[in-house]
Amino acid sequence: MLPRDGVTQLPPIAALRRDFIWGVSTSSFQIEGATREDGRSPSVWDTRGQKGLIANHDTGDVACDHYHRYREDIALMQRLGLQAYRFSVAWPRVLPQGRGLPNELGLAFYDRLIDGILAAGIEPWLCLYHWDLPQVLDDLGGWTNRDCAGWFADYAALVADRYGDRVKRFATFNEPSIFTLFGYGFGGDAGDTAGLDLLHRAIHHVNLGHGAAVDAVRERVPGSSIGCIHNYQLCRPSTPGDAQAAELCDAYWNRAFPDPQCLGSYPSLIQAAMEPHMQAGDLARIQRPVDWIGVNHYGPTFVKTVPGSRLGFATGDRWPDIPATPIGWPIVPEAFRDTLLTVAKRYGLPVYVLENGLGGHDKLDQSGAVIDNERIAYLHDYIGAVNDAAGAGADIRGYFVWSLLDNFEWDSGYGVRFGLTYVDYPTQKRIPKASFHWYRDLIKAAGT
Ligand code: FCB
User: Fewest beta carbons within 10 Å, which of 72, 124, 356, 368?
Assistant: First the structure.
């Protein structure tokens, strides 16, 4: 890591392609707010908020108010000099019943957003699903219902028809392993085979939804470039006795989606568990040709054995000598380099890093600035790792910081901040942090 104060140095990027893409990522529920406006229906994350399950009883009701302030946010993107912006469409905003009749007001919001992004000279990267499933579909079983794959494909078709004249980059899902594992996997005990069954059903149906959505977008959008975004972290055993747990975690966390999607098979460790939920021809339905693989990465996952638990494993303690971010996520840039090399080799696809960043508890200093040198040091070392992986032969084509803005960080609510821009929630004022200026300088230097 660089020294914590006065960091200005940029990382080495000489091994990166000349047409390397620099971007930032966000997601609908985390920034939009306006959850009850213009015909949007609740998502499963509205429900979690209403139930008081989020830290500090936070909700996504207002978030960054991006629904109203998107023009200001596009101006921030322009100031950064971004080449690409990844966002997601909120399914419950454009299809309030989850299927059937589209909501013109919701669709029109993304028209305005996309047109604004394009007018700023930035390429829109549209992710179809960043966890905000319409509650009405969850009431029908959500991803544990095989029909959900078809509902998702119909939604993908609607989005492709509407925006495919302007958007060419489409991602089907953001981090399918995370929302399935954390939704159905962790928690529960070993005797709960019904719970485990739900996890396996959800995994398979999301994979079917991916394949069907790839076809739906490909058919409708000439020149489209499609992939899925995976949270991929090397799994390390917390202690030598946790090696088997780490292997099983790797199968669920890293491979349960890209393996069937890109290689046409489930990892051998979970194959038997998946079989009862599969029908003839399913693997061919899932393995549709994609153009790239997306990787989100935050640090290796440390895994411990938990006897008597539903999965037999959980996330464990990091090794004692490993530094961590302010929210306790391990900092190991070499593991990022190795992850990128592993993914590039295993799947043989161009790789885009579509999320990476540091979560903290940033505060305004007395002068009203946010000097987040720790984030700069993190980005420096992690972008350096991208360069190292490219130098060692991995075909990496882009890097997107998580995130443009501080935002609603799921169960942690607004207490955890990942933004290059500080958001003062009471006033909604946007204040670019030191890392914002650093990243702008990096993009500028890369283009010269
Ligand atoms: C990822 C999510 C993203 C954000 C970051 C910190 O797992 O995709 O929405 O919360 O973590």
Answer: 368
Q: Distance between CA 71 and CA 73 in Å, rounded?
A: 5
- 283, containing H or E segment: helix 282-286
Ligand 1 atom with the smallest distance to the CA of 174 is 8
CA distance readout (Å), 241 to 238, 312, 332:
8, 13, 22
Strands (E), 104-199: 123-129, 169-174
Measured CA distances, 133 to 67, 124, 173, 426 (Å)? 18, 22, 11, 28
Q: Count of alpha carbons within 13 Å of 2, Cβ hemisphere only?
A: 21
Q: Which of 30, 175, 229, 254 to mutate to test the pocket of ligand 1 (most atoms within 8 A of CB)?
A: 175
Q: Which atom of ligand 1 is nearest to the CA of 27?
A: 9
Whether residue 432 is contained in a domain is answered as yes
Ligand 1: which residue has its CA nearest to atom 5? 402
Q: What is the pLDDT of residues 89-129, one digit of tens each?
A: 999 999 999 999 999 999 999 999 999 999 999 999 999 99
Average pLDDT over residues 194-212: 97
- The verdict on residue 211 lying in a domain is yes
The total number of structural domains that make up the chain: 1
Domain that holds residue 303: 21-446
Q: Do the beta carbons of residue 207 and residue 213 sit within 8 Å?
A: no
Which residue among 219, 334, 355, 374 is the active-site one?
A: 355
Residue 11 lies in a domain: no
Question: Is position 115 within any domain?
Answer: yes
- Residues near ligand 1 (Cβ within 6 A): 27, 30, 174-175, 178, 231, 296, 355, 402, 409-410, 418
Residue 128 backbone dihedrals phi, psi, to 5 degrees: -75, -25
pLDDT in tens, 376-417: 999 999 999 999 999 999 999 999 999 999 999 999 999 999
- Residue 38, CA distances (Å) to 69, 104, 108, 367 in order: 15, 9, 10, 39
CATH assignment of the domain containing 104: 3.20.20.80
Task: Pick the atom of ligand 1 nearest to 410's CA.
Answer: 10
421: nearest Cα among 339, 381, 366, 364: 364
